[in-house]
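Annotated sample (chain length 76).
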Amino acid sequence: MPYGSALCGAKLVMPGPNLDGQSLYDLARDEGCTFSLGVPTVWLGFLDHIEKTGVDPKADLKLKRLVVGGSAAPRT
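Output written by the structure step:
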């Protein structure tokens, strides 16, 4: 993905060591991310943050597409 992003001229946002739900949510919101990739553990933390805080991702985020990789996402 890093190479594909560069080839198509997309902005690449990397979270660094902060992979907790709140940090990822804040980063996606602040950077205006529209496409994001992560393993199930990352997305479960992201969703847990949304549920616990009651934030409105439709109002805050510009995300249009998420990709889950590395292993299958749980049904929940």
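Annotation: The chain has a mean pLDDT of 93.
Annotation: The chain has four helices and two strands.
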